[in-house]
Each structure stands twice: as C-alpha cells, then as structure tokens.
Design goal:
Helix content is 71%, strand content 0%. The chain is mainly α. It has one domain: Ferritin, core subunit, four-helix bundle (Ferritin, Up-down Bundle), CATH 1.20.1260.10. This is tRNA-(Ms[2]io[6]A)-hydroxylase.
C-alpha cells in the first residue's frame, strides 16, 4: 500500500531498544511537528473547506498521539527531552517545489506529508512486530493504523485538487528520491533516524 522503495532494516529495532527514552522523546516531537504541518497546510489553503475539516481532525489526532507518547514517557519515569531536529524530514523538504503556482505548492506539500506518514507507518509496523516490549508493540501497532490513514488522507487530497498536475508522476519521483535518501538513515534511535 505504501509503495516505499526501501524497507527499514529490522536491526534498527535493536538500536531503538538500546535507548527507549530517546526514541520516545523523538517520537513525541514527531507527533507535534505532524500536527503543526497539518495546521500549516490549513493556513496556506484555507479556501478548501473539506481539506480544512479533515486536516483539523488530523491535527487533533496528532496532538493526541503527542499526549499519548508523553504519558508513556512519564509512566516510565523518563522526561520529555528537548525538541530534536529531524534530518530526514529536512532532507525530504528540499525535494519539494518551492516555486510555481499555489496549487503546485499545495500538492507538493500534501505529497511530502504523505511520504512522512508512509515512512512513519512503515517504522511503526516494524516496531510493532520486532520490539521486545509488549506495551510498545501494541502502541506502535495502533499508531501504524492511524498513520496509514493519514497517508491516505494526504494522497487523496493531492489527487483531488491536483487534477491538472500529474500527481502520480510526481509521487513516483518523490518515492525514488526518498528511496535514495533513506539509505543514509536507520542508524539512530529516532523515528526517522
């Protein structure tokens, strides 16, 4: 369904398990950034009522995920660390078209968002299957389902409003780019690292 070019090496889970506090902190901030991204898309494209309605719900859900991760952090006696930079997302952002029409920019932002959700979904699936922590295994399974829904939301809006744009071709370009980019990741205890 996600059509990613390269799957994460399962050994990444061993890295994650070596520092659960770090992965949880990084994950919490990823959820916060996802909520902020949805709000940014709304702000830039407020003339589309269905997009606004759907992305408001998505932003609320991402904030709920942030809260859920924070609750796990507290329950385990950890502290939410400082916000982390997400090099993967920053590199992916460079691929987006910054010029062109507002519509082109919106479609690219939606595809960029779909890609992040797809990779997060793939990582959550791997965690749900491989992590030696029953609570986190179930947690990441549930979030995997949610992320798949977010991926679908972003792709659907890109196709709906990008009728005069070859959205499928642009998505294939992004998948190729991400497939090369992700080769440099999977070495750190972060969601995209």
């Amino acid at each position: 369904m996600l059509h990613l070019k390269l799957e994460t090496d399962p050994r990444w889970v061993n890295i994650v398990e070596s520092n659960i506090e770090e992965i949880l902190t990084d994950h919490a901030w990823c959820e916060q950034k996802a909520a902020t991204n949805a709000i940014t898309i709304i702000t830039l494209n407020s003339e589309y009522p269905d997009l606004v309605t759907e992305l408001l719900e998505l932003a609320k859900e991402e904030l709920e995920h942030f809260e859920m991760v924070h609750e796990i952090i507290k329950k385990r006696g950890f502290k939410l660390g400082r916000e982390r930079k997400d090099s993967y997302v920053n590199e992916l952002y460079k691929f987006m078209n910054k010029g062109g029409s507002r519509l082109n920019s919106m479609v690219d932002r939606l595809l960029f968002s779909a890609m992040i959700e797809a990779r997060s979904c793939e990582r959550f699936k791997l965690l749900s299957k491989e992590i030696n922590d029953p609570e986190l295994s179930k947690f990441y399974h549930d979030l995997m389902i949610s992320e798949a829904g977010h991926y679908t939301t972003f792709i659907s809006f890109a196709r709906k409003y990008g009728k005069d744009i070859d959205v499928d071709s642009r998505w294939k370009e992004l998948v190729e780019f991400e497939g090369e980019l992700i080769k440099s990741y999977g070495k750190h205890e972060t969601i995209h690292g």
